[in-house]
Write a structure and sequence with these properties.
The protein has about 325 residues and is an alpha/beta fold. It has one domain: Ribonuclease Z/Hydroxyacylglutathione hydrolase-like (Metallo-beta-lactamase, Chain A, 4-Layer Sandwich). Helices cover about 30% and strands about 25% of the residues. The protein is built from 13 helices and 16 strands. The protein is globular and about 50 Å long. About 50% of the residues are buried.
């Protein structure tokens, strides 16, 4: 999800907050008047260094689907780092026909912030996303969270389950890497707890995507990534079948697959894990909620490109339909 979107969600405001919100809202209006795009007026999502990934081999959905139903070697642990609540309009497109037919209204949507522990017998221990560092809840300002982001982050709504700090300490063994579904705050907010030098991986355009809203969130993302290794960017190629936007065989042994699922962000990536009990799909924020997944309704205002979100959600749902034994782990709900 995108804290920048939460910053500008409609809600009553008083005092100086109106000034902050009005000036922010004026930016896209000014861009339109001047004939500028959001990208031309905006700045990059992060100034953190990004390099070509040294891990992973471009592949195809055909090759992936030929093996994913076979039992695999990776054990997967689901970690609920924090319970939280966010505006429903951010995680479900309430303007969709399905949401309107169901009578869904805006309001607090209960969610969780997850991290996933992957243990490969020869490649070591990896995390998918990073959970939440203790400092984000205790001292968001000290953690580097900007004023406007703090205003809408609502850390008081966070109920910590297992912080990234405790998770890393519990794992003990050095991490072989962190595989990010995308670079929004709630997915990199555990990074201060990750040992420096740990390799990081994410989809294309995650640091370089330009937006007006990045003026307000870039410093926060940079603060959480400060001191970390450069983000290694997956080198996707077009999927010959067109079933996905791109597929990477992460370890080259068919045990873990990165699937490009753009829309929420340009490089949003889902991960398909072959475990001893069957395949598990980690959707990332291609679908935040159980209701959205089950009713084929894409995320709402937290996504940067809703038409691409529609296509990516359809692609992942079609994949699971072809492999009904697959377990699905959604971005922010069980």
């Amino acid at each position: 999800m995108h804290p920048s979107s939460k910053t500008w969600s409609p809600r009553p405001a008083a005092g100086p907050r109106v000034l902050f919100r009005s000036s922010a809202a004026a930016l896209p209006c000014l861009a339109a008047l001047l004939g500028l795009t959001s990208a031309s007026l905006g700045c990059a999502a992060s100034t953190h260094a990004a390099v070509t990934s040294s891990l992973g081999t471009p592949s195809s959905s055909e090759a992936m689907e030929a093996v994913i139903d076979r039992p695999g070697p990776i054990s997967l642990e689901v970690v609920n780092s924090t319970d939280w609540a966010v505006p429903r309009s951010g995680v479900i497109n309430l303007d969709s026909a399905g949401a309107k037919a169901a009578g869904l209204k805006d309001g607090d949507e209960p969610i969780a912030v997850f991290a996933y522990v992957l243990r490969h017998p020869t490649r070591g221990v990896y995390l998918v996303d990073s959970g939440v560092t203790d400092r984000l809840v205790r001292d968001p300002k000290g953690a580097g969270v900007g004023m406007l982001v703090r205003w809408q982050l609502h850390p008081e709504k966070m109920k910590v389950r297992e912080t990234a700090d405790d998770l890393v300490a519990r794992l003990g063994a050095p991490l072989a890497g962190v595989l990010l579904t995308h670079l929004h705050l709630d997915h990199v907010s555990g990074m201060p707890a990750i040992p420096r030098g740990t390799p990081l991986y994410a989809g294309p355009g995650e640091t370089t995507d330009r937006s007006v809203w990045n003026w307000f969130t870039q410093s926060t993302i940079d603060a959480f990534l400060a001191g970390s290794a450069p983000v290694q960017t997956w080198q996707y190629r077009a999927d010959p079948s067109g079933r996905t936007a791109g597929v990477i065989d992460v370890f080259g042994d068919g045990s873990l697959w990165a699937i490009l699922a753009p829309g929420h962000t340009p490089g949003s990536t889902a991960y398909l894990v072959r475990t001893p009990t069957g395949p598990v799909l980690l959707t990332g924020d291609a679908s935040h909620t159980r209701w959205g997944w089950e009713h084929d309704v894409e995320p709402g205002s937290f996504s940067g490109d809703r038409p691409r979100s529609v296509a990516s959600l359809a692609s992942l749902r079609a994949l699971t339909a072809r492999h009904p034994a697959m377990t699905v782990r959604l971005g922010h709900q069980p």
